[in-house]
Amino acid sequence: MADSLFSRVLVANRGEIAVRIIRTLRALGIASVAVHTASDRDAPHVLEADMAHQVPKYLDMEAIVEVARVAGAEAVHPGYGFLAENAAFARLCASAGLVFVGPPPEAIEAMGDKIRAKATVAAAGVPVVPGAAEPHDSLLDWQHFPALIKPSAGGGGKGMVLVRSAAELPDALESARRTATAAFGDGTLLIERYVANPRHIEIQIFADTHGGVVHLGERECSLQRRHQKIIEESPSPFVGPDLRARMGAAAVEAARAVSYTGAGTVEFIVDGTTGEHHFMEMNTRLQVEHPVTEMVTGLDLVELQLRVAAGQPLPLTQDDVRLDGHAVEARLYAEDPARGFLPTGGRVLALRTPEGRSVRVDSGIREGGVVGTEFDPMLAKVVTWAPDRARALRSLDRALAGTVVLGVTTNVPFLRSLLAHRAVRDGDLDTGLVERALPELDLDAATPPEVPTAAALVFHDRPRGSDPWDVADGWRVGAPAWTTWRVEARDGVHTVQVSGLPGESAYVRTGDGPQSHAVIRATGSLLEVTIGGRTTRYEQAHDGDTLWLGRDGHAWALTRHRVGDPGDRPGAAQAGDGVVRSPMPGTVLVVKAQPGERVAEGQPLLIVEAMKMEHTVTAPRDGVVTELPVRAGQPVDMDAVLAVVAEEER
């Protein structure tokens, strides 16, 4: 069969999905062509590909098609996001004589417009959620709450806003329209009834050009926050054979209604009490969570996409589809759960991923690479398979415990905490569970005392050749010397005293506590610390005066303070000083205040955007804006001063 496939394919994407596609191309003996921007020239997908070309940006359709032509590619695989659901790009590929690995542009248009999609599938007998849509309806007149606002042209949860009352509706529409316009170039919105106790369950479908359409079972995607999925699994713990058959048949009919071909996902909102299901949308592309379907079906969905795009019939019928065991996927994000899940970034100083026969890691990062704020914050996916759900969840937790990312704060500890939640273990899921469970999850755990102690030992064990007279310790002739180290962690400064040589024999003590014998040994990036007879192992990485330590999925950034430094966190504003700092690295999207303007505490001053997420920065107190050194469109670092609000003189 491979002889009738393509000889060279361009991958019009980046990150983990581009790497994943390239690996299937290699397995099939197909040459791969990568595209990249200037900042991504050393990205993993570029290093994996057979050849690579620079383009101005990943959404530059004309440049990408020209690269495909020059490189001699016969087809273009768009992955997901970016250009995967862009009918104009599919047509541009066709006009250049390139095969677009995806559905026909007419199907993309029919399902890409949520308003049109609902009407199309409803006509085919697929149940839909009641709602209203622009331009025919005034959404301000909607009276049934809670309700969900959605961009008509959108996907991936971007721009979706839950509205609980009529008073919230105007501002929610404004925010959703702004996000939709920025993300999709179309601000058209719709509003739908919010389903109580909702589960988000999707059906993977495949269709060929010969009339064959099958579904490959369901994926449970209810564990999400801000309408972004976090953990997905297949099969769903809620769906039995009868509901699977009914939802699968509805998904197949939705695909047939638009003469669909290739891979697609029909998403349903399911009432967790009654099992009643309603069509939400159809994603006309491969999904981020497709690996769980691959692991329970044994199929390579990218290979199937390529075969369908090459005109081959599907190699299976519905009766051939079998779901074996259980698979669970966790999305690893560059975000800080302790700071409201704000995006993070930085250089990846150390990277370790889990291994195992039933463990799969799809990653778009590499050690030494930089995680910026211009792209989606998802860095990788960790997926595990087991014969049953309970073992698959345990396996995923172990895999996350073996994941180390140093230099960039990630959500791995949050994922482990979520997996341990009783409702998750029991399969009692709905789309609001994560938000409700947040108070129960340990999002801002205190730094374990042994961690800053280990850091102090590393700082104390200075490289040979350094000048001991530079150390402001208590050394004196004929007496033990205790060096005081102030180790800053995210939860404050820890004071540790060290005496002796940690690489041989030393003693440590914290505060007024007793002293303990301590030894450290380093082998490459592996650090072994023994304190009082207890040995702990870490991955370590150094970044100037900051030491990163990783263990059990946690990562700590610990900064060395010289004796006499203030204990306050550097760069942190003092309480009540009126300084407004950026909560994340990103770009100022909107400036809502002016210098000299009187503002009230909590009043929005600016909107900062990073990794496709908006964050509203508010006034810390009543007063007057005396400084506003930023403008819309300006990039800012984390903790950069955005404004100063001074108290009014009385």
List the helices and strands and how they pair.
Layout: E1 8-11, H1 15-27, E2 31-36, H2 44-48, E3 51-54, H3 61-71, E4 75-77, H4 87-95, E5 99-100, H5 105-112, H6 114-123, E6 131-133, E7 147-151, E8 161-163, H7 169-184, E9 189-193, E10 198-207, E11 213-225, E12 228-234, H8 241-257, E13 262-271, E14 277-283, H9 290-297, H10 301-309, E15 326-333, E16 335-336, E17 342-343, E18 346-347, E19 350-352, E20 359-363, E21 370-371, E22 378-386, H11 389-401, E23 404-406, H12 412-419, H13 422-426, H14 433-437, H15 450-460, E24 483-489, E25 492-501, E26 505-510, E27 516-523, E28 526-531, E29 534-543, E30 546-551, E31 554-561, E32 579-581, E33 586-591, E34 598-599, E35 604-610, E36 613-618, E37 623-627, E38 635-636, E39 641-646
Parallel strand pairs: 1-2, 1-4, 2-3, 4-5
Antiparallel strand pairs: 6-9, 7-8, 7-9, 10-11, 10-13, 11-12, 12-15, 13-14, 15-22, 16-17, 18-21, 19-23, 20-22, 24-25, 24-31, 25-26, 26-27, 27-28, 28-29, 29-30, 30-31, 32-39, 33-35, 33-38, 34-37, 35-36, 37-39
Description:
This protein has 650 residues and is α+β, with helices and mostly antiparallel strands. Among the domains are: 2-101, Rossmann fold (3-Layer(aba) Sandwich), CATH 3.40.50.20; 130-193, ATP-grasp fold, A domain (Dna Ligase, domain 1, 2-Layer Sandwich); 343-445, D-amino Acid Aminotransferase, Chain A, domain 1; 450-561, Glycoprotein, Type 4 Pilin, CATH 3.30.700.40; 579-646, RNA polymerase II/Efflux pump adaptor protein, barrel-sandwich hybrid domain (OB fold (Dihydrolipoamide Acetyltransferase, E2P)), CATH 2.40.50.100. Helices cover 23% and strands 33% of the residues. It is built from 15 helices and 39 strands. The strands form nine sheets. An eight-stranded antiparallel sheet has the order 14-13-10-11-12-15-22-20. An eight-stranded antiparallel β-barrel has the order 24-25-26-27-28-29-30-31. Strands 3-2-1-4-5 form a five-stranded parallel sheet, sandwiched between helices. α1 (15-27) links the parallel β1 (8-11) and β2. The radius of gyration is 27 Å and the shape is globular. Mean pLDDT is 90; it is low at 564-575.
